[in-house]
Each structure stands twice: as C-alpha cells, then as structure tokens.
Design a protein that fits this description.
Structural class: alpha+beta
Largest sheet: 2 strands, antiparallel
Helix content: 25-40%
Strand order of the largest sheet: 1-4
Order of helices and strands: HEEEEHH
Oligomer: single chain
Amino acid sequence: MRKIARQNGKNPLFDAALIRRIIKNPVYCGKIAYGRRKTEKVHGTRNDYHLVEQEDYLLADGLHEAIVPEDVWNVAQEKIERYAKKYEHVNKQKNEKVHMLSVIIDNISD
C-alpha cells in the first residue's frame, strides 16, 4: 500500500515508526490528548530543545467521531506495551570485548 508523498517525499511506503505513531494517537478513538509531549532543553546547549513523550497526560472526549472503537484502541495500546523492545544499556570497560563465537570455541576446547 502506498501513501501520499508529503513534505520531502522520500519514503512512499508506510514505515514502522509511522504505523506506531498512528496506533498510539488517541484521536482515532475519538479522544483528544493534552500534554502528550513536552519540549525540554538539550543539556549543554544554548537554544536547542527536543520533544519528550510524557507518561501522564490528560485524555478527554473529543467532539469528532471515532474511527476505531475505544476498546479496540485500548487493546492495541496494551499490545504495543507488551511487545515493545526494551533495551538494557550495559556499561562495559574499554578493555572488555564480547566475541559472539567464543562460546563455540570454549565448547570445542573442552
């Protein structure tokens, strides 16, 4: 399925990030969200800011008609949270290296 090319028009297809933003948008279930994102200053810069998504925000009924029923939207939100990949940052020393095949070599030498 192709989308209408807008702005820079580089990607004519729906990518995963766009689908995720659409699924997370409460407008499709007839709601309006207040305070979903907040601009925060980038530390160490003078005039740079970036958007940060907030956990707690106000969700109110909108005057528009819902495209997706609210119960289906809630199930989609639960599914997104359940299948979201959580990456754990591991601090390694500069002299530590991880070799993926070292387990096989250790098994052969034993």
